[in-house]
Sequence to fold (136 residues):
Amino acid sequence: MSYFVNPVKEDQCVFVTYEGKTTLVEFMAARYEANELLSVKRWNRIVVNTAGLRFSPMTLELIDLASDLSSDLPPSTRIALVIRPDQVKNAELVERVAQIEGVFLNYFLDPDMAALWVKQPPGTGKNKERNQKSKP
Fold:
């Protein structure tokens, strides 16, 4: 298995981490597992870390992932997508498309900054400085 789903009670957040080569089946399995945990626990925070993948997901794959993760969740759900620097252009498009569709998704280069953002209360906006500390 090349993904991990980790619910963290203290943060009321589910952390999904992909590593190595991940198949579409594993992407879907992680989606169902994460959505089920969020639903059962009535949480609305998820951090999805794709930075450990050996390949760079295509823009459409990232859009599908974001859309799939949010499809069964309430609109108040915050989704933080952690990516590698080579995925920024794709992630910017994913973020715009997600927000047009009403999904509260932001991308980050730094997993710690993603976790901080996802823990913010609803109504607090996106911080454009969110990736500054991670850029070379």
Observations:
- Residues 3-134 form a domain with the Transcription Regulator spoIIAA fold (CATH 3.30.750.24).
- The CA atoms of residues 33 and 97 lie 24 Å apart.
- The helical segments are 24-41, 59-71, 88-100, 111-118.
